[in-house]
Design brief:
Layout: H1 8-12, H2 16-65, H3 79-85, H4 92-101, E1 113-119, E2 126-136, E3 149-159, E4 169-170, E5 177-180, E6 204-205, E7 211-212, E8 222-226, E9 238-243, H5 271-278, E10 290-291, E11 298-299, H6 304-319, E12 332-334, E13 343-345, E14 367-375, E15 393-406, E16 412-421, E17 436-437, E18 446-448
Parallel strand pairs: 4-17, 5-14, 8-9
Antiparallel strand pairs: 1-2, 2-3, 3-18, 5-9, 6-7, 8-16, 9-11, 10-15, 12-13, 14-15, 15-16
Length: about 450
């Protein structure tokens, strides 16, 4: 009797299993190869989207840093200033977006092309950045005749300029220096502000719904001098020291072991003034904030010597300077031509070692926000005859300054980086969700919208 194992039928089936396994392996390898190519494509698409997002945000930030939203390039609604900031190739926002996109590799290589375009709806500039990487290699698809691939991704971002808009302004970490609504550049005389002690324009013009009235020369450092309250002050370019509630909640302060911060927590009636300079305070300034007798925020009437010394101490701690003057450890604010991007070079005392000596750092403790006021009534002086201060002011906007140094007289040398005026008709708050909360940075926020 023949056994099944030795039957002719069984002998003809020998090797079939190997053939089936071989065919299955080919199919498995093909699917694996296809999966690898698909995953690689997804990864590069993610790279492309991140590059587009970064480019759009950088372009939107350039609207602010160039001074476009503050009117430093001219009327933001005019075609000339719009073309200067964004023309699809060589505008300030275009160049910034292109530069950042090229720093974000797609599949390990810089984008093949970066294109930008801008729109200006309602005065809020928007930039769209499109990045493309062509010639992406396929690892296995070429075996079956597949060629290279191309990925394209787009992002849109905007800078929201609240000047004259319906959204209120509320900013935190405001420094205790209050300046009058007078343009510190006296060459700007139209429209003149009759409340300024010498012919000068408004920083924020009430007749223009608190939009910027004139360009502010952001490239020229301005000197802000503390007012000697017991004597009637000339407020053009001067500032009132003010008392801002420091608690609660507890502010974010540097260590007393930090550069020039050893006396940060020493006592005295001026302690909170010093801490409000050096620390990141939590008090929120509302649009129209009242400042004066009986208000939450009042003028600091300490002696001129106390204000001078405390301003020096707080500012040296804030900007990480060894002493007064330039080049003593603080970050350097590099003024440029109006409209060009102000750059920041890290100082040797910068608390982040990675930022020390960096040529184009993106943040600095030397960048601060200060309030601008108008008197409730006539004139500009809150203390027209010295102490006591009888005038009441209201906040009508904010300036963002880049502090260069503090001198031995308590004067602050600073470059004006951003200006945002408040619309007096706005009544919303942060808690209601209708206000802009500056979050310790700029009163003009930048965001991705698509």
């Amino acid at each position: 009797m023949r056994t099944l194992r030795n039957s002719p039928e069984r002998r003809r089936e020998r090797g079939v299993t190997i053939l089936i396994v071989a065919i299955a392996l080919i199919a498995i390898l093909a699917m694996s190869a296809l999966a690898i190519d698909i995953v690689a494509l997804y990864v590069t698409e993610g790279d492309a989207q991140r590059a587009a997002d970064a480019a759009a945000l950088a372009g939107a930030k350039a609207f602010v840093s160039s001074g476009f939203t503050s009117g430093q390039l001219g009327d933001p609604l005019s075609g000339g200033s719009q073309s200067l900031v964004c023309n699809g190739s060589s505008g300030y926002a275009d160049l910034q977006a292109q530069g950042i996109a090229n720093l974000n590799p797609i599949g390990g290589v810089a984008p093949t092309t970066v294109t930008t375009s801008c729109t200006f709806p309602d005065g809020n500039p928007q930039i769209t950045a499109t990045v493309q990487r062509s010639g992406l290699p396929s690892f296995f698809a070429r075996i079956w005749g597949g060629g290279s691939a191309t990925v394209t991704r787009t992002a849109k971002a905007e800078a929201y300029n609240p000047s004259g808009q319906s959204v209120p302004i509320e900013v935190q970490s405001v420094k205790p220096w209050l300046i009058a609504n007078c343009d510190p550049d006296t060459t700007h005389t139209v429209p003149a502000n009759p409340n300024c002690p010498v012919p000068a324009a408004y920083i924020f013009n009430p007749a223009a719904n608190y939009a910027i009235a004139n360009p502010i020369n952001g490239s020229t450092p301005h000197q802000f001098t503390p007012v000697n309250v017991p004597n009637p002050p000339n407020l053009l370019g001067n500032y009132y020291p003010i008392n801002i509630p420091i608690l609660p909640p507890v502010p974010s302060c540097p260590s007393t072991g930090a550069v020039s911060c050893g006396n940060l927590n020493t006592g005295g009636g001026h302690a909170d003034y010093r801490r409000n300079i050096a620390c990141s305070g939590t008090f929120v300034f509302n649009n129209g904030q009242q400042i004066g007798p009986g208000q939450t925020v009042t003028v600091d009437t300490n002696s001129a010597a106390v204000i001078k010394n405390t301003t020096i101490e707080g500012t040296e701690c804030l900007i990480h300077a060894d002493t007064t003057g330039l080049g003593v450890g603080e970050d350097t604010i590099n003024p440029t031509l109006v409209g060009a991007r102000v750059t920041i070079t890290g100082g040797y005392n910068n608390p982040n070692p990675a930022l020390r000596t960096g040529s184009y750092i993106s943040r600095s403790d030397s960048v601060v926000t200060i309030p601008v006021y108008e008197l409730v009534g006539v004139g500009t002086n809150l203390c027209p005859t010295g102490v006591p201060c009888t005038g009441t002011g209201k906040v009508v906007g904010f300036l963002q300054l880049g502090i260069q140094d503090v001198d031995v007289n308590g004067r602050i040398d600073a470059v004006i980086l951003t200006a945002a005026g408040a619309n007096p008709a706005n009544t919303g708050t942060c808690s209601s969700g209708t206000a802009i909360c500056g979050g310790r940075v700029s009163p003009i926020p930048v965001r991705l919208i698509q």
